[in-house]
Specification:
By secondary structure, the chain is of the alpha+beta class. It folds into 2 domains: about 180 residues, no CATH class; about 90 residues, no CATH class. The chain is built from 11 helices and 6 strands. It has a 4-stranded mixed β-sheet with strand order 2-4-5-6. α3 packs antiparallel against α4 and α6 packs antiparallel against α7.
Length: about 300
């Protein structure tokens, strides 16, 4: 019986799952909201977790172990008559080949979060139509997460996901909420979608691929080569900085990667890192304390 059970579990682990590409955790933090009845926030949190994790977001087949680990933290600042306002922190990770290490891919804060939601309101995503600002917000970041993850596995592998994110931007502009139009701010969903698809910022996506597929994925086999390949991924980012020194994609890259870069180059076989370190101090000056830790 034990052998049969073991075989059954092994078989189930090898079955690809249609859709359900994400292993997501959504947290609603309402500590700043003066509301005695917390039930609405608990219902919202449960509904969003089910929406993200049960909705098929593509036609791709995923093994259970291939699901993308990600998290959403909604920090509410206001709630009144079914209208919610706050910020949304979005993070995602990618498991590195032949290891139990999860590398951060995305760490992004959206400050323009507002939507209406009635308790127990059903959430549906339609690729070709606008349903609600809440559905658009979550769906947009799901496709950004999937696109960045795909880019880390294959050069420009995220094209289809980023195109769907752009469609969501276009459809959501009719809703009138902040964050979907270029004039709303210089760091919002419109600009995230626009820049990540633009050839002007191509080094960001190229860096994602080389850094992960030719760098981190190699670290258990040849750590020295992995380090040199990561240097090769980082150096071209200076070209992006020289063209667009305030590019949000540069900040987004180092928001996710700064601590990892420090840890990776502070141990193991030594490489010539002087030029790269000088470049990092130039293009990511906000992380000077981290760069000083690299010896």
């Amino acid at each position: 019986m034990n052998k049969i059970l073991t075989l059954l579990l092994l078989t189930l682990s090898l079955i690809k799952v249609y859709g359900q590409e994400l292993n997501a955790q959504f947290v609603v933090n309402a500590d700043l909201v003066n509301q005695t009845n917390q039930q609405i926030f608990e219902t919202l949190e449960r509904s969003l977790n089910e929406f993200i994790n049960m909705q098929p977001w593509s036609s791709q087949n995923f093994f259970p172990q291939e699901k993308i680990t990600c998290s959403f933290v909604l920090n509410l600042s206001s709630y009144n008559a079914s209208k919610f306002e706050g910020t949304l922190q979005i993070q995602s990770q990618r498991t590195i080949y032949d290891s139990n290490y999860d590398s951060p891919l995305l760490n992004f804060l959206d400050k323009d979060i507002s939507f209406t939601y009635q308790e127990f309101q059903p959430l549906f995503f339609s690729p070709a139509s606008y349903e609600s600002n809440l559905v658009s917000l979550i769906s947009f970041y799901v496709y950004i997460i999937m696109g960045i993850n795909a880019d880390s596995l294959q050069l420009k592998g995220g094209d289809a996901y980023f195109e769907q994110a752009q469609r969501i931007v276009n459809l959501s502009q009719q809703g009138g909420a902040l964050g979907w139009k270029q004039n709303d701010s210089n760091r919002n969903r419109f600009w995230l979608s626009d820049t990540i698809r633009s050839n002007t910022f191509r080094e960001y996506r190229e860096a994602l691929y080389i850094y992960h597929r030719k760098g981190l994925d190699l670290m258990t086999k040849n750590l020295l080569e992995a380090k040199n390949n990561i240097i090769s991924a980082l150096l071209p980012l200076e070209n992006l900085y020289d063209r667009r020194p305030n590019a949000m994609l540069l900040q987004m890259f180092f928001d996710a990667k700064a601590d990892e870069i420090v840890n990776f180059f502070s141990d193991g076989p030594e490489v010539d890192f002087d030029r790269t370190l000088k470049m990092l101090k130039k293009i990511a000056p906000f992380y000077q304390p981290q760069w000083k830790q690299i010896k």
